[in-house]
Amino acid sequence: MKKCCVVIVTYNAEKWLDVCLGPFVKLPKDMAVVVVDNMSSDNTVKIIKNKYKFVKLFETGENLGFGRANNIGMIWALKQNFEHVFLLNQDAEISINSLNKLCEIQDENPQYYCLSPSQYNTKEKLDKNFEKYLSNNKLINTVKKLKQDAYDIEFTNAALWMLSRKCIETVGVFNPSFLHYSEDSNYAQRIYFHGGKIGVAPKIKAFHYRGESSAKKSHFATIKSTWRYIVYELSNPNNVDDRKILVKWYMRLIQRFILSLISFNKEKISVYYSLIKNLNNEKKEIYKNKMISRDNGAFLK
Description:
Layout (H helix, E strand, L loop, with lengths): L1 E9 L6 H5 L9 E7 L6 H8 L4 E4 L6 H14 L2 E7 L3 E2 L2 H13 L3 E9 L7 H9 L3 H6 L5 E2 L7 E5 H7 L11 H11 L3 E12 L10 H17 L6 H22 L2 H28 L8
Parallel strand pairs: 1-2, 1-4, 2-3, 6-9
Antiparallel strand pairs: 4-8, 5-9, 6-8, 7-9
């Protein structure tokens, strides 16, 4: 078995390539780096081919979103017999030494299907979202003491995730119902559904610099954010009463649509009409994928 495969999804990542790929120029033989490019329109692919020839590059020819693009790399890593798969954001950085240590900690603590290093955005400052995840689990002071190699944590984002082979073979890969955002939250739900844990390794430092979001404050952004939450709730494998959740969302959307009509707010009318239409068109597929996500090795075939 080979040790670790790093999987990076890129989309117009030109300015980040030296950050995320630079540490792997002298790559050990038991590691590999896979890049799945979501049809970048800048020089991302050209730079990788010319400067980072050690990278196994997949060009999707379309924007598959974060989860489905990662699935390509994760499945390839399994077929190549890697014991660990590390998901790395294009705007994040980790050293080979840190990867080796994460692999060792996960090997010694196999209950952690997913293991995250401490995520910083500067040399000494924790990433704000990561700090929030620690606070939610009352781990801020505990983690700073650095007594244990790993601690239980309810969730941390997939910018820097070490997944064990056992995790992927059991939980599967990302649910294709998600395009971008919330796919990692859903994957965490599935880890717990299958009896695994998520951990944080506080002694291991990595960096998430966070590229600027391209999202704009518009009715299209509102549709996307609300739709993500609808899919997230409907896709939770731990929920047993799908009809109750579906009725709740229909009632909420229809009520807001009617209020928008009464106030003659054209933007909101468009938003809630689109969401109701999406729900009508996609609910069967979402439910099907939810049922698949309960199976061992979901979406691997």
